[in-house]
Amino acid sequence: MRRTLLAFGLGFLVAMFGGWFLFPRVLYSRHSQPVEFRHKTHGEKSGLAQCDSCHTLTSDGQFNGLPHMEICAGCHSDKLGTSPAEAILVDSYIKSGRETPWLLYARQPANVWFSHAIHTQRGLACTECHGNYGESDQTRMYEQNRISGYSRDIWGRSISRLRRAPHDGMKMSDCEACHKRRKVAVGCLGCHR
């Protein structure tokens, strides 16, 4: 009986270790962005400190997401500095007129409808959901879930949320908590399609 309990306990611990520590490392593939980008450098050198200087809403209120190449080309039509990343941007994308194939950290699942316009028009600052990402001095590694194809940022560093840091991914519970704090009632169909 003791051996059985010991074997069960050992098997349970191995399974827990595999599930909590090994499975997430196998579940996500890591990819570099096509060009190294530094938000902080752009804010300091160009004076574009506001998110909406590059990340804009369309006339119908939809979020453009990543800046279109015309915005980048406005400053980078010729190499401004000597960085290898800037040379890649100008030579591979701006001169050829191609959009940079950025990997999207915050792409929501297909069943989620989210309007940046509604949130920004009600005074919600970008940093309240995205943190101080605009002050970052390096491009984070993009981690993609091998099963769903979505970014790890949808769930954050810890799926269980036991080791959660502020602005570590956006789960439905984060949205619900914010709506509750602000006393904004939205039914299921307000966010899900």
What would you say about this model in short?
This protein is 40% helix and 4% strand. The protein contains 8 helices and 2 strands. The radius of gyration is 21 Å and the shape is globular.
Could you give the topology of this structure?
Blueprint: H1 2-27, E1 28-31, H2 39-46, H3 69-76, H4 84-94, H5 116-121, H6 127-130, E2 142-145, H7 172-181, H8 188-191
Antiparallel strand pairs: 1-2
Description of the structure:
This protein has 193 residues and is mainly α. The protein has a domain at 28-66 and 102-191. Helices cover 40% and strands 4% of the residues. It has eight helices and two strands. It has a two-stranded antiparallel ribbon with strand order 1-2. Helix 3 crosses helix 4 (84-94). The longest helix has 26 residues, at 2-27. The chain is globular. 3% of the residues are buried. The model has no long low-confidence stretch (mean pLDDT 82).
Look at the structure and give the mean pLDDT.
82
N- to C-terminal separation?
A: 53 Å
The overall strand count is 2
Strands of the biggest beta sheet: in what spatial order?
Answer: 1-2
Query: What would the principal axes of the Cα set say about the shape?
Result: globular
